[in-house]
Automatic annotation (TrEMBL):
The active site is at 173 (for beta-ketoacyl synthase activity). One of its GO terms (molecular function) is 3-oxoacyl-[acyl-carrier-protein] synthase activity. The keyword Chaperone does not apply. Pfam families: ketoacyl-synt, Ketoacyl-synt_C. InterPro entries: 3-oxoacyl-ACP_synth-2 (IPR017568), Beta-ketoacyl_synthase (IPR000794), Ketoacyl_synth_C (IPR014031), Ketoacyl_synth_N (IPR014030), PKS_Beta-ketoAc_synthase_dom (IPR020841), Thiolase-like (IPR016039). This is 3-oxoacyl-[acyl-carrier-protein] synthase 2. It comes from Micromonospora haikouensis. Keywords: Acyltransferase, Fatty acid biosynthesis, Fatty acid metabolism, Lipid biosynthesis, Lipid metabolism, Transferase. Pathway: Lipid metabolism; fatty acid biosynthesis.
Length: 428
């Protein structure tokens, strides 16, 4: 039997995606999420996580039907915050999809990079309520560790028995996309053969919503939840807050070949830039977002006209959608008129730390299946948003190269580029 595991040192070649898992408002696995996106289905509804009656925004993209008891022992479920539970379940699906077995003899060659934007916000808020109650209650012994940003990655490592590099970064809404770039570097540097990576968040709470309401950031279309998130439409009025996790298995193409895995796509490259402008508003003109797109495409060995599809950040806010459109045009030039652009947030809402990883999943699935999901709720053309946003219906089309944009508070601009795998191999 050929050796399947390396022993470090700089490696060349491609890094490929061999497994994908998801827990989202459209379903508790990859396939239900993907088919929901292609069908133009909305995962937005009235908030059930708390009583939002006094708030002007009473809708969210919640993960519904998730039962921790179906996945964890009672003891383990209690020690894990919701965002960690989502991540572990998505990771299990991704690893099974990749047909990956973590051999104890090579467990030090398997890493985990799973990022979050707001981490255990819900556990912090619940503990604070308990302390401030008329009859105070002390937080549990698990409160502090369960709230930490690195805990989803650590819980996944524990679940898999992975002893390689374990890392977590917080880049606001760019967190999930950056996890893939970080994982790719670990593989290319020879520090790991396989990295389980992605993003997660679960913070549909009273304080989070009250704060975002104060910012005027969220849609108030409470009477029409499914129509509330409408990226690039002239009548958009803010984003819809969501939750979920998307986790992917990355490995070197050579490692995947040796163990007989069939890749979805190649993670060809990426880029990270900073607006250095404002804590929540994008820089006017999208100059640095455009730089991230331009650099990511170039580092992937592509030209602007090689890009077939863009999974947009597309939040449904006035400023973001306008700025992203300008950035795409600035980065791709005339090729921008020919590229298909769609916004999954029109259906899933904003998954925050998981959003960029969801974008990676969409790009990989689009390359595998040669179809891209639509942007729903695009009812009124905006003259300042003038690209092809794949309105209303999924589109079958050749997809050889795709990129996902992920832009976060603080001016974080992260772009990841995906191409066809070195060999499509046998059908999955």
């Amino acid at each position: 039997m050929p050796e399947k595991w390396g022993r470090g040192g700089m490696v060349g070649g491609d890094v490929v995606i061999t497994g994908i898992g998801a827990v989202t408002p459209l379903g508790l696995d990859r396939e239900s999420t993907w088919h929901g996106l292609l069908a133009g289905k909305s995962g937005v509804g009235a908030i059930t996580a708390f009583d939002a009656a006094d708030l002007p925004t009473r809708i969210a993209a919640e993960v519904r039907g998730f039962d921790p008891a179906a996945h964890f022992t009672p003891k383990r479920a209690r020690r894990m915050a919701r965002f960690s539970q989502f991540a572990v379940v998505a990771a299990r699906e991704a690893v099974a999809d990749a047909r990956l077995t973590v051999d104890p003899d090579h467990a030090d060659r398997v890493g985990v990079v799973v990022n979050a934007a707001v981490a255990g916000f819900d556990t912090v808020e619940a503990a604070t309520r308990g302390l401030l109650a008329p009859v105070p209650s002390a937080p549990s012994a698990q409160f502090v560790p369960s709230s930490l940003t690195n805990m989803p990655a650590c819980e996944i490592a524990i679940d898999l028995g992975a002893h390689g590099p374990v890392n977590a970064s917080a880049l606001a809404c760019a967190s999930g996309a950056y996890a893939l770039l970080d994982a790719r570097r670990l593989i290319l540097s020879g520090e790991a053969d396989v990295v389980v990576c992605g993003g997660t968040d679960a913070a549909i709470t009273p304080a989070m919503f009250a704060g975002l309401v104060s910012m005027g950031a969220m849609s108030e279309r409470n009477a029409d939840p499914a129509g509330a998130s409408r990226p690039f439409s002239a009548d958009r009025d803010g984003f819809v807050f969501g939750e979920g996790a998307v986790v992917l298995v990355l490995e070197s193409a050579e490692h995947a070949r040796r163990r007989g895995a069939t890749p979805y796509a190649t993670l060809a490259g990426g880029a990270l830039t900073s607006d250095a402008f404002h804590v929540s508003a994008p820089a006017p003109g999208g100059v640095h977002a455009a730089a991230a797109i331009r650099q990511a495409v170039a580092r992937s060995g592509l030209r602007p006209d090689d890009v077939d599809y863009i999974c947009a950040h597309g939040t449904s806010t006035k400023a973001n959608d306008r700025t992203e459109t300008v950035a795409i045009r600035a980065a791709l030039g005339d090729a921008a008129d020919r590229v298909a652009v769609s916004a999954p947030k029109s259906m899933l809402g904003h998954l925050i730390g998981a959003a960029g990883a969801l974008g990676a999943m969409v790009c990989a699935m689009a390359i595998r299946e040669q179809v891209v999901p639509p942007t729903i709720n695009l009812h009124e053309p905006d003259p300042e948003c003038d690209l092809d946003y794949v309105p209303h219906q999924a589109r079958e089309m050749p997809v050889r190269a795709a990129l996902t944009n992920a832009f976060g508070f603080g001016g974080q601009n992260c772009v990841a580029v995906f191409t066809e795998p070195p060999s499509r191999g046998e059908p999955r």
